Structures are given as structure tokens and as C-alpha cells.
Amino acid sequence: MNASQKKADGVVLTELAQAYGDEAKARELLESWRWPDGPVCPPCHNAGEKSVSKLEARSASPRGVRPGVYCCGACRRQFTVTVGTVLERSPVPRSKWLLSLLCSSRKSLSANQIHRLIGVTYKTAWFLCHRIRFGVTPQHWAEAKLKGTVEVDETLVGPKAKPKSAVVVLVERQGLARVKVIASVTQKNAGAALSECVSQEAVVNTDEHPSCKQPLKQWKARQAVNHSRGEYQRQNQDGSRASTHTAEAFFSLFKRAIIGAGHHISREQLPRHANELAFRWNTRHDADGQRLETLPAGSKADD
Ligand SMILES: [Zn+2]
Prior knowledge:
By secondary structure, the chain is an alpha+beta fold. It is built from ten helices and ten strands.
């Protein structure tokens, strides 16, 4: 991290800490984000003012109640806003969770940077990073079929000495990205990623890698640029442009983030990192607050 980034992160964090840095504010923000129309019982989806009530201390009670606890009139269970989310049962305060989410920028912050920025132990920061990576893909993105002009490219990531992992990025030229970690770069694996992620109406742009050739027959149109012949973009007759620049931009961000994370990323962890990068890419024009609100409410924390 260079000096200007450090300063920028510091400024943003001061503002964020004022806005969300205490537990009550963090809880209110989470509630407004998860329940825009009022609290909903997570186990039974019961909602409404009459059936879900906030637990209030009886005036005679000397102890009071924990703030933010609701009681469901239908199933009688008590719940809070974090039930069923990545934050459930976490000993880390909600405000720290929010800050670590919010201070994330397009580049990946390492656990060590988060540890210093938000004042939690390295171990806690590491834990937060992993939970966030696990939970960052909203369902509608995870299942989105990419449309329009979709650029497809693959790359290998991993340390020099070890077998590398293969990653396919599929990215709309003006929109969303999806990333799939595949066992190896083969026609079959690349084809499966395409079938899963790309609408048949899309125009697919690839390079001339053999893995991309055969599976593309089923798409509406396919345009390939031939990197080995020095062709990186081509003007089509209809005025459109064939290239894989967007996919390559994604990969350069991806590789920098992996190097920037500063520690070895195992094959098992790679899909989470890929998810996180796709999330950052998909929210790259959002302010930090918006990015938080795009996070999925119902992410399960079962790892
Ligand atoms: Zn209920």
C-alpha cells in the first residue's frame, strides 16, 4: 500500500467509523438493509407489525433486554438481524464487520491491512476476510446469465513451483462479471462454464485458445481475436469491436489482488477470492455504502 492509498483509506475509515462505528448504528444499518419493509422472522418468514414484536424491557425489570431482539408471534422464536447471515454467532462486533466490509476497495485488502485499519487482531481480520469472501456473491449475480457482448478468457494462477489453478472469467463488456475456477483448461470445462454463465443470445468474444473453439457453436455469434497472430482487437463489419480487453482487465486486477493479498492462496480458497473479485468488479462504480447494501442478506455462515 503506498502513502496516498493509506491516507485515502484513513480518511474514508474515519467517516465510516463515525457513521457505522458503534453497535447501535451498525445494527440499525443492517436492519434497514436486510428488512427494508420491517423485520421478518428468518426461520418462518413471518412478518408484519402485529406478528413480529421488538422485545422491550418491562419497566419494573432492573436488567433490561439486549437491544435488537425480536420475537416472532407465529413460531415464538427470538431472533436478531444477524440470524442466518455471515455475522451470526460471530464474537466480532457488528461494527467491526461493517467497517471491514466498507473499507474494502477495488483492490483486495489483506488481512494484515484490515487488522491495522480497524483495530482487530490479525487472527480476527483473517477470519473476517474469509467469511466476507464466502458470503459476497448475491444470489441474483451468482445465477445471472450474462448478455450482450460477453468476453471470455482463461488464465492460470498459482505459485511458480506448484501446479496452477485454471480460472475462466466471463464478463459483459459493460456489465457484470462471473468467474469460475475449473479443474483444467479444456474444451469441456470451458464449455460448462459458458453454458452455466452465458445467455444463448449473447455475442461471445474469445481469443483463439483451442479450449474456446468448439463449445461456442451454440452461441448466437462468436468472435475470436487471434493473439498469436498479434491481433488484439478487430473492427467488425457491423461497427462492433471484437476483443477480450475487458476480460484481460479483470484478470490483471485479479492477479494483482492475489499478489497484493501477500500470502499463498490455496486451490480451496481460490473460488472465494474469485467471488470477492467479481463482487468488487460488479460494484466498482458504487460508493462504499452502496457496496455494503448490495451484499446478500441471507448468506449462510456454515463453513
Ligand atoms: Zn417465526
